[in-house]
Amino acid sequence: MSQKELHVISGGKHTWSEIAKIAAQIHPYVTAIHIREKTKSLDEVFIGVQYLLEQGIPAKSLYVNGLPSIALALQTGGLQLPGTTPSLVIQDEFCRGIQRIGVSVHHADEAKWREKEGADYVMFGHIFATNSKQGVPPRGLEQLKQLVNHVNIPVIAIGGMTPARVKSVLDTGASGIAVMSGIWDAADPLGAVLAYHDELQ
Ligand SMILES: Cc1nc(C(=O)O)sc1CCOP(=O)(O)O
Q1: Per residue, what are the HEC states of 111-151?
Q2: Which domains does the chain have, with CATH numbers?
Q3: β-pairing, 32-35 with 155-158?
Q4: Which residues fall in a coiled-coil region (predicted)?
Q5: Residue 150 and residue 161: Cα distance in Å, rounded?
Q6: Which parts of 10-71 are beta strand (E)?
Q7: Is 153 helix (H, G, I), strand (E, B) or coil?
Q8: Closest ligand 1 atom to the C-alpha of 180?
Q9: For residue 136, how far is its CA from the centre of ligand 1 (angstroms)?
Q10: Radius of gyration for the chain, computed over Cα atoms and rounded to the nearest angstrom
Q11: Is 182 in the pocket of ligand 1 (CB under 6 A)?
């Protein structure tokens, strides 16, 4: 079986030095560490990502959430765009210099539309109930399977992912998972990553 993807999403609760320390341990075992620091300014994220690079985190392991200019300028491994992103952004010449672009989606038709626009992968969630996404019911494995069958690009499942749930998620045909609290809230983030990694083999 080909290697499945493991995306780790930062949750805005750690300092850059804490992110660097955890990223240094986990990057060999993950596809990407997404820098999703919604409350920080563009300048703060730019300086933060630069700091992670200086600390030896490989650029290819870092995906920037929502800030194309940083992904382009620092040549990170990817860019994750929110579902509200206008079509123009992905199709812009500017984005061609970005290594890999993923878009968050919440419906199969949206995923197809993003595929046509040129997204390299889509992220779909939330699959299971999670404290990280409250107020909206989870979409569940059946919707994930339908979405996977609707597109030809990789689908990354997010929301409530635990190592014990990985097999049921992969059985839908999903290409991998994305995890926030399961890593950043863990007493041992590296141990948590290895547990997900084992299930994804
Ligand atoms: C950042 C994010 N996006 C989602 C979506 O549905 O698009 S769910 C989510 C949070 C996932 O956190 P956890 O791994 O702690 O459940």
Answers
A1: HHHHHHHCCCEEEEECCCCECCECCCCCCHHHHHHHHHHHC
A2: 5-200 (3.20.20.70)
A3: unpaired
A4: none
A5: 22
A6: 32-35, 62-65
A7: coil
A8: 14
A9: 11
A10: 16
A11: yes
Instruction: Say whether 143 sits in a helix, a strand or coil.
Output: helix
Can you point out the beta strands (E) in the chain?
A: 5-9, 32-35, 62-65, 78-81, 101-105, 121-125, 155-158, 176-179
Residue 197 main-chain phi, psi, to 5 deg: -60, -45
Digitized pLDDT (tens) for each residue of the chain, 201 residues in all: 468 999 999 999 999 999 999 999 999 999 999 999 999 999 999 999 999 999 999 999 999 999 999 999 999 999 999 999 988 788 888 888 999 999 999 999 999 999 999 999 999 999 999 998 888 999 999 999 999 999 999 999 999 999 999 999 999 999 999 999 999 999 999 999 999 999 999
CA 189 vs. chain centroid, Å, equals 17
Catalytic residue numbers read 126
